[in-house]
């Protein structure tokens, strides 16, 4: 098998790229929910000159426009030199991440211990979420509609939370179970407290917890019905390895691609083609709901931009624009790990330190639920990356019959546009802490920018 040149070889980081690495660590640390990720991106976009769609009166000459989708997803666009109905260049990533969600009737007490019931979101290994420092992020809408934001467990003065595990001395039966069954979903209960704080009557600890929530946030027990509370790993992202060549942090699938997509569009002024970057929600659970990629906000956004550009709405022009476009589905690939080599086809695996990863198709087994990119478009991306001296490699999602997974590529391809999956390799994907390569991250930012600024 031919050896690929390492992305590290000859890699020289500019001062700006060094600072960008630190900015990425901050983004991972502060943007742990899709709401917080979009809020950060929206603030950055505003500073870079993007104006909300509702305030725009035209779309031409490098004008920058943004659209928030219910505070959990969004789009950014820059008007290009060519008419929008000739197509646009799109990078689409997702900002939701596997986690635990608090149930709508979550709070209970059992033998002097208070807990939250949870429901896991996305593909997780449940045992990885026990005996781990956890934080609580989210929003609660009170009966009168007031929005209350909650973040507990990130500040050094905050308490953290945890989910109990069984001690090994008594785990004889648990050890006989399959790994996927040793911890069940209904056992992922968040430990909240056990001080009754002078309460009287039944469920004294539960009542004490409710008093804390009432005093600090104005929250009643019934308000959990209209809450969106997410349980995530506590702590900041940081460099890993003796040589600091890795990035360790929660949610790099897919916030590494989201951040790189933002950096690619941040300093573009007047591109040949209109450039669009999309940040989707709900990818980890199938892209459903009105903030997922199956919703039609991309199509609606393009319709709005075309109307601003031409002065009238034309449905045929919208369809032409979408079909004439080219897109990168910005998502990560499983990195090759020698400790688990048996699940990989080594000739078609993503290796950390070898640059950007392009996946012609994803899906499972017989390419089910996959976009299978046309070779003409793959060749175009190859030429672009080679021209800009960007290290790249190809990969699949492991051995054919081992499993698999999908991305949002298929939901863009349905419009007729050319789409290719493009990201980086990740170790420990979907674990509370994921690992990426510094060199790959730098190449990813350069690769996305090369795509958005191409004149082809």
Question: How would you describe what is shown here?
Answer:
The strands form 5 sheets. The chain has a 9-stranded mixed sheet, with helices on both faces. It has a 7-stranded antiparallel sheet with strand order 8-7-11-5-6-10-9, covered by helices on one side. The chain has a 3-stranded antiparallel sheet with strand order 12-13-23. Helix 6 (297-310) packs across helix 7 (315-323). It is built from 10 helices and 23 strands. By secondary structure, it is of the alpha/beta class. The chain folds into 2 domains: 15-97 and 250-452, Zn peptidases (Aminopeptidase, 3-Layer(aba) Sandwich), CATH 3.40.630; 99-233, Aminopeptidase i, Domain 2, CATH 2.30.250. It is globular.
Keywords, please?
single chain, 456 residues, Aminopeptidase, 23 strands, 26% helix
Task: Tell me briefly what this model is.
The protein is an alpha/beta fold and 456 residues long. The chain is built from ten helices and 23 strands.
Q: Give the overall average pLDDT.
A: 96
Outline: globular
Tell me the fraction of residues in β-strands, as a range: 15-25%
Tally of separate domains: 2
Question: How is the topology of this model organized?
Answer:
Layout lengths: L14 H16 L3 H14 L3 E2 L11 E6 L3 E6 L9 E7 L4 E12 L2 E9 L12 E8 L5 E6 L9 E2 L15 H4 L7 E4 L10 H14 L9 E7 L4 E3 L5 E4 L2 H15 L7 E7 L16 H14 L4 H9 L2 E5 L2 E2 L21 E4 L3 E2 L10 H13 L4 E3 L9 E2 L3 H5 L4 E6 L1 E2 L7 E4 H15 L4
Parallel strand pairs: 1-2, 4-14, 4-15, 15-21, 16-22, 17-19
Antiparallel strand pairs: 2-3, 3-14, 5-6, 5-11, 6-10, 7-8, 7-11, 9-10, 12-13, 13-23, 17-21, 18-20
Helix pairs in contact: 5-10, 6-7
């Amino acid at each position: 098998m031919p050896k690929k040149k390492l992305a590290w070889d000859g890699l020289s980081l500019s001062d700006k790229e060094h600072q960008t690495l630190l900015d990425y660590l901050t983004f991972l640390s502060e943007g742990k929910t899709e709401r917080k990720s979009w809020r950060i991106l929206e603030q950055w976009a505003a500073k870079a000159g993007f104006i909300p769609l509702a305030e725009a009166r035209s779309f031409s000459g490098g004008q920058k426009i943004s659209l928030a989708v219910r505070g959990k997803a969004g789009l950014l666009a820059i008007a290009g030199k060519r008419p929008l109905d000739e197509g646009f260049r799109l990078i689409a990533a997702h900002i939701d991440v596997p986690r635990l969600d608090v149930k709508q009737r979550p709070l209970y007490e059992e033998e002097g211990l208070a807990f939250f019931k949870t429901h896991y979101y996305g593909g997780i290994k449940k045992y990885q979420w026990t005996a781990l420092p956890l934080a609580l992020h989210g929003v609660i809408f009170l009966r009168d509609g007031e929005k209350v934001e909650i973040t507990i467990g990130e500040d050094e003065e905050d308490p953290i939370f945890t989910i109990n595990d069984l001690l090994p001395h008594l785990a004889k039966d648990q050890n006989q179970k399959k790994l996927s069954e040793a911890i069940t979903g209904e056992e992922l209960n968040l430990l909240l407290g056990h001080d009754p704080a002078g309460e009287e009557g039944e469920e004294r600890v539960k009542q004490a917890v409710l008093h804390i929530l009432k005093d600090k946030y104005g929250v009643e027990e019934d308000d959990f019905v209209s809450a969106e509370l997410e349980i995530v790993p506590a702590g900041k992202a940081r460099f890993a390895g003796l040589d600091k060549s890795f990035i360790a942090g929660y949610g790099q699938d897919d916030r590494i691609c989201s951040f790189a997509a933002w950096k690619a569009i941040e300093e573009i002024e007047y591109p040949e083609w209109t450039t669009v970057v999309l940040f989707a929600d709900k990818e980890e659970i199938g892209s459903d709901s009105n903030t997922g990629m199956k919703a039609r906000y991309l199509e609606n956004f393009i319709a709005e931009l075309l109307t601003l550009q031409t002065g009238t709405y034309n449905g045929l022009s919208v369809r032409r624009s979408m079909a004439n476009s080219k897109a990168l589905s910005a998502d990560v690939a499983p990195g090759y790990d020698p400790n688990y080599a048996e699940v990989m086809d080594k000739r078609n695996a993503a290796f950390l330190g070898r640059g950007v990863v392009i996946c012609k198709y994803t899906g499972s087994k017989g390419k089910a639920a996959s976009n299978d990119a046309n070779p003409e478009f793959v060749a175009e991306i190859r030429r672009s990356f080679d021209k800009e001296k960007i290290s790249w490699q190809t990969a699949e999602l492991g051995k054919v019959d081992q499993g698999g997974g999908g991305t949002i590529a298929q939901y863009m391809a349905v419009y007729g546009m050319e789409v290719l999956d493009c990201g980086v390799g990740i170790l420990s994907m979907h674990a509370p802490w994921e690992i990426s390569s510094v060199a790959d991250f730098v190449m990813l930012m350069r690769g996305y920018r090369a795509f958005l600024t191409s004149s082809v």
